[in-house]
Amino acid sequence: MTTIIFKRTLKGNNRLRDYKLFLDGKKIGTIANGQIKKFETTPGQHNVMAKIDWWSSPKISLLLNDVDNIELTISGYKNGNWIVPIIIGIFGFDFISRLLFHINYGPTLIIPAYILLVYYLTAGQKTYLTLVES
After folding, report:
1. Which residues of the chain have pLDDT under 50?
2. Of 77, 84, 80, nearest to 126 (Cα)?
3. How many other CB atoms are found less than 10 A from the CB of residue 67?
4. What is the largest CA-CA distance in the chain?
5. Which of 57, 67, 108, 134 has the most CB atoms around its CB within 10 Å?
6. Which pTM value belongs to this model?
């Protein structure tokens, strides 16, 4: 039998939620933050994907032999750990600029965050998670 090993990185975003693992379109299990899971499968061509809600990783196509042990690393949005500090910085900058200079930059500074949100709700939903062979 062939073994596929999934390793989920320790990431801040989505750390309390499990990712669903799919093999050839069928759910084979879930994986928690920092966890390692092993699944046995048959040799041949297989498609692997991870999902959380409507977001997912791109499908990876694997050609497995009889004795293959494939390791795949799953992680969340690659810049997810930076989102909260950046948003806090934007609000802090806006607060200080209003307090000291009576200038309101808030609406202008928030536009990039909305663009990013709309991207991941539409076109980027299949690239939110990363799944790479390690």
Report:
1. none
2. 77
3. 9
4. 69
5. 57
6. 0.78
Q: Read off the tokens for 94.
A: 């806006």
φ, ψ for residue 35 (rounded to 5)?
-90, 155
The amino acid at residue 82 is W
The span from the CA of 41 to the CA of 73, in Å, is 18
Burial of 46 (0-12, 13-18, 19+ CB in 10 A): middle
Question: Is there a contact between 24 and 45 (Cβ–Cβ < 8 Å)?
Answer: no
The correct answer on CATH 2.60.40.2070 for the domain covering 2-77+126-133 is: yes
Beta bridge partners of 42: none
**pLDDT per residue over 98-123, tens digit each?**
899 888 777 777 787 778 778 877 88
Which residue type, as a one-letter code, is found at position 80?
A: G
